[in-house]
Every structure is written in structure tokens, then in C-alpha cells.
Design goal:
about 375 residues; alpha+beta; Heat Shock Protein 90; 2 domains; five-stranded mixed beta sheet; two-stranded antiparallel ribbon; about 10% strand; rod-shaped; disordered C terminus
Amino acid sequence: MLTLSQLRSGRNRLFWSLHAAGWLAYGLTVYCGFLFYKQPANIGPVIAIAATAGFVLSAPMRYVYRSIWGRSERWVIPVVLLTSYVTALALRIVINISSLHFGLDAKHHFDSMFDLFEGALISTYLLLCWSALYFGFKYYESKQQQQEAVLKAVTLAQEAQLKMLRYQLNPHFLFNTLNAISTLILDNQNRTANHAVMRLSEFLRYTLDQDPMKRVTLGQEIEALDLYLGTERLRFGERLRLEYAVEGPALDALVPSLLLQPLVENALKYAVSPREQGGMVRIEGRVRGEMLQVSVVDDGPGLDERSRPAERRGGVGLRNTRERLAVLYGDSCRFAVLDGRPGLRIDMALPLEMAGREEAAQHPPGPRYRRPAHVAQSAGA
């Protein structure tokens, strides 16, 4: 089947190739038919002239049909019938003259103009078939263009939606972090606040360098998460306990960039910040069959202890993450918020796509960062 790119790149070449092949097939078919019925030997030159004349005379029909393409049927049908008949008449005149020139008997040519006009109806069917093939190709090309336009529009809409969802996270995260830095300054913890600002600038530099449409490996995503957690460690100190349980194969699986940050931020907000003793946040990752399973678990209050439903507990973070995954993967992914009793568990299952070594090396999170050794070892931080 011809693709739209083939039709566009070699439209003229394709037309002339099919045009020549069609009239060559016509000439061979007619010649073989005359041989079967043992017609005169000098019928061959007449058939060759007829095929050549058909090739030349029918070519201008292309430009006539171009001019009426897209108009209503009441314009197209009469023009096609008239153009086919006029071309067929000219073709019959050439055939008639060549038949007389080569001395064929009376049954191979017309003696009167009435017979000539009537005989042109036979060739009209042939030209109508040519017209049908031409409009068929034009219609196919038009449908391909429409489908391409629709797919492009859908893709652009998805990209816009994904960028909107991603960019909503940055001011949301920035608002929370600046509030924390402000609190450190009010508590006269200026050195800690300065370190927090430096960590914040590193993380923001990373987010600006990342294309919202790009996917990174889970290992790179965890490295980026550690940039964010560097700021939060300054804020919470020993109250923040981190655990990683990520299997080795899962580290090379591709995930949307900055997938974990809003989920971990949600856990910090509800499991660590409001409690004097702090809390634990655990990152899990594993490969099961054709799916990558990623979980963010905390030991804070469960859903039953909160008046707000699960969908609102994470605010922008959970909602945007769910919507981003829905846009990227559709029904092939799973996002669930579960009551851990105590704590909250966010489970995600994404279609598995592994990054090659070269691809993973091409997109490091930053020159100052390396994969944390504790991630592969599943040890607590």
C-alpha cells in the first residue's frame, strides 16, 4: 500500500509511471485479443499507435480533474463524462486514420461521422475507468492527509496538556519550598537556609533542562529525586527517613521525567511534616512481566483518619501525575492510591520499555550527580 510520503515525494513520477503502465497494458491486452482471433498482421502498428495516442490524449485529463477536485457532484460528474467522451472521440479519430493508412478492412474503421461519434462511446468506457482510478488515488491521498492532520492535532494537544501538567508542578513545589526556607530564616537558621537555596537552585536547573515530553530511566529519576530530597533533608533532618527497594532491572526502565517528585512531596507533607517524630518514605520499583511497577509508600495517617478523600489528599501532585500517565499511556497503565493502615501507598504500573546503555548514557541528570549506591542495594537511608 502506498504511503502518504511516497505519494507526496514522487507524485509526478508516480502518475506518469502508472499512466504509462496502464496504456501499455491496454495495448498488450488488445494485441493479444486480436492474435487470439487471428486478425491481420498489420493490426500491430495500429494498436501501438492507439496505445500511444491514448497515453498522450488522456494526460491533459489530469489537469482538468485537478481544477474540479473538491467541487460538488453536479459539477464533477458532467465534466468527467464530457472530458472522457471528447478524449475518446479524439482517440477514435486517430485509430480510424491509422486503420485507413495501414489498409485494414472496413470492420476496423468507420466510414461516416455518425459511426465515428457512436464508436467513441466504446472508448469512453475505457476513459471512465481511467478517471475512476485517478479520482480513487486522489481520494486516498486526501484521506491520508486528513488522518495525518488529525493525528498531528491530537499529538500537539497531548504535548500541550503534558507540558501544562508538568509546569503546574514547578510553582506548586516552589511555593512549598520557599515557605520552608522562609521558616528556616525566621528561626535564625541562616546557614541551613542558604544550603536549602543552593539545593533548590540545583533542582530547578535540572527541571528547566528537562523536556516535559522526554522520558528518563528510573535510575535517573531517583537521582533527580535526591536533588529535591537534599533540600528537604536540610529542613527535616533526622525526622525524614528514606528507604529504597528498587530492583536492578527496574533502574533501566523508562518513566516520565519528574514522576516521583510530586508523590514524594505529598508523602512529606502528610507523613513527615505534621508529626514531631517525622516519618518514613519508601520508594519501590520492580519489573513484573511486561510492566514496570513503581510505588511510593509512607507511614503517615491513613485515609480513614482524614476527612478529605484520597483524590484531594495530594492536591495538584497526585491529580497531575494521574493525568500525565493517562495522557501518555491511556488504559495501559494503572495508578492507585491505597490505604496502608497506617500510611498511604501509591502504586503505579507502566508499560515496560527498557533504555539501552547508549540511551541511558546520553541523558545523565547532571555532571555533579551519580547513581546512589543505596538504591540498587535496597538499603534504608
